[in-house]
Input
Amino acid sequence: MRNVTLTTLLAGALLCLSACNQHTDKYAPNCTPVPNSYQAQQGTFSWQIATPLLVNSLTDTTIIRTALQPFRPEAPLTIMADATTSSTEQQGAICLQRVEHLQLSSDLITPESSSGSRQTNEAYRLEISPKGVTLQATTDAGLFYGLQTLIQLTDPSTGRVQAAIVEDAPRFAYRGIMIDVSRHFRSKAFIKRQIELMATYKMNRLHLHLTDAAGWRVQIDRYPRLTQLAAWRTDSLWQTWWDGSRHYCEEGTPGAYGGYYTKQDIRELVEYARRHCITIIPEIEMPAHSEEALTAYTELSCTHEPYKQADFCVGNEATFTFLEGVLDEVMELFPSHYIHVGGDEAGKASWGKCPLCQRRMKQEGLKDVNELQSYLIARMGRYLQAHGRALLGWDEIMEGGLAEGATVMSWRGEQGGRRAMESGHQVIMSPGEFCYLDSYQDAPPMQPEAMGGYLTTEKVYSYNPLPDTLDTAHNRPLMLGVQANVWTEYIPTEEHLEYMLYPRAIALAEVGWTQPEHKSWSDFRRRMENRETDRMLAAGYHPFDLRQEIGSRPESRQPIDHLAKDKPIQFNAGYWKKYPANGEQTLTDGLRGDWTYGDGHWLAFVSPKRVDVVIDLEQPTTIHRVYADFMQICGPGVFMPARVLISISDDGEQFTPLQELTYPVVKEGKASFHRFGWEGEATTRYVRYQSFPDETYGGVHFIDEIVVE
Ligand code: ACM
Output
C-alpha cells in the first residue's frame, strides 16, 4: 500500500472535479493552498497525454519531470533554445518560461518584494487559455509551483481546465514540517512519500530531528558508535523504553529496534527533496537531548557516565572537536543554508559542579550556566558561518544572549520569536499552541494516544504568525515563515504519523502560502472534505478525516448556570500557578474546559495537597448535585484522583461528609475524563470539595468547575 505514489493519487479514484470548470469566482476553489490571485476566463484548455510541454534551456528538467510525475509522467517535453517560443509552437501546448523578470499585473506581495530577502523567488504567472498555457517564473521552483496549481485545477478524468489567469506567490519563504525520526526511525520510502505530499501543497522545508535520546539517525564516519550503538534499542515503544532501562543495544542484536540513514540514504533523500523544491534541514541536538551521543562517547559529558547525562560538557574541548566533526559531515551531506542545532530544554545540572565547565565560565567571563549554553551556541554559530552556513535553533538559544546571525525557531509560544525580531534576528514561528501536531486533533477519548493538548485543524488554520500589529517594515524581512512539528514519542507507526500530519500540516501550508484576506476556513474544510482527503486515501496515505470530526468537548460549548456560580470560594490549598486559568474564579465561573488543560478553563493542583476548596453558598440552600470533572493524560503526568471527598457545613468549620468516592487509578495510554460527584438532597451553606492523589502515580489534578445544583 505504501508504494502507491501521487500518480495514483491524482489519476485514480478522484471525486468530481468539474466544479472548478464551472467556477467563475475570483479565487480558484479547488487548489490548495489557495492562489493569491485567480481570474477565471472564457473557455477551457484540454491537457491530454500527448499535449506538448515546451521548456527553455535554463530550466532544470528534473524538477519539471518531478512536477509532472503525478499527473502526466509521460508528457512530451521539448527544450527550446529561447524562452519566447513562436505562436505556432505554442498552439495547444503548455509553454514553461523561465524569465528574467516576472510581470505581474496584480499587486501581489511576495516575500522578496516585501523583504528583499535572499530566498528564492517562488512566484509564478499562469495563463490558461483555450489555445494553450503559458507558465512564467524566474526560478524552477516558481515553474514547479505553477505546475502544481495547473495539475490541481485540471479535471483528471477529462484533462479539461478552466481558462484563467493565476498570479501567485507565497506569503512566506519558509513553509516547513519537522518530523522527529529519533523517537521512532522512519524509512526512506516514508520520508519520500511525505516529500511528495508536501510538494503538492507547496511546502518547501523538511526539518528532520535526527538526534535525541531515543536514537541517533545519521551515519557519521568519524564517530561510528553513534550508529553502531546509539541508533538501537530493544523496546519498540518509546514509553516502555523511557520508563524502563533507556538503554541502547548493539546493531545486529536480535530484536534491535531503530535504524539510521546511511550517507547514501541521505544523499538520495536530499536529491529527492531538491527535485520537489524542498530543502531538508538537519537537526543535530546540542547541548541537551544527547543521552545517546553521550553513551556512545561517554568522555563528552561532565561525569563520563553512560546513560546518566543528557548535556554535553561545555568545558571540554573534546566536545567541540566532536560537534565540529559531526557538523563537517552533516554539512557535506546537506546543502541546506540552515543547520539546526537544537538548543532546547538543557537541564545544565552537571555544569555547575563540573570543574571543566567552571573553568570555562571563569575564562570566558560567563556569569551563569545560561551564558555557558550561549557560549556553545555562539561558537557553533561561528563554525557554521565560517563554512557558509547559518545556525538555526529552538528559542532557548536566546537564554544567556542570542548568538550573532542565529535564526530562532519559536516553539514556547511566540514571545521568543517576537523578541528575536526586536533584536534583528530572523524567525520561524512554530508555537506549540498552533503548530504541535503531536497534540490530539479531536476528542481524545476517541483518538489514539497522543502527547496531550487539543489542536484542531481549524485552530492550525487560524494561525497568523504576522498579524497586522506586527506586520511592520522592520519585522517583515525577519519573519521567515511557519513550521509544523511532529514529535513522535506516542506515534509508533508510519500510518499514525501521517494521521497526525494531515490535514493539519496542509492547513499550515495554506497559512504559509496564502495571504490572510484570501483564506477561508469553511472553504479550506470543504476542499479537504470534498477532495483532498479522498485523494490522500486513494494514494494510500492515512489522513485524519474531518468528515468524522467530533469537535470540542460538549460541556465547554456553553456556560453553565448553577448554585455555586460566582459564589465566594476559599482555597485551603493553593492551585498551581503554572496553570492559573481564570485564577480563583475558575472553579465557579460557569465556564467548563475543552479537551486540553491548557485552554484557560482548567485549574491545576499539585503536591503536596490537591483540590481542597470550600464554596460559600451565602445562605442555607437545598442542593441535589455536586460534581467536578477530572482528566487523565499520563504523558505529562496528569492523573485521576484516587479519592474524592465532598462534605457540607452550616458554619464553614464543622464539615459532614456527603460522599466519598474512590477511583482505581491505572496508567492508560489514552486521555480520559471522569466525573466525581454526589446526588441526593441536603441543605447547607458551605460545600467542601477535596481530591487526593493516587499513592503510586501522584500527578497533577486538573478540574474546570465545581457544579452545585
Ligand atoms: C521542543 O519541542 N522541545 C522544541
The CA atoms of residues 120 and 139 lie 7 Å apart. Residues 1-26 have pLDDT under 50 and may be disordered. The first helix runs from residue 6 to 11.
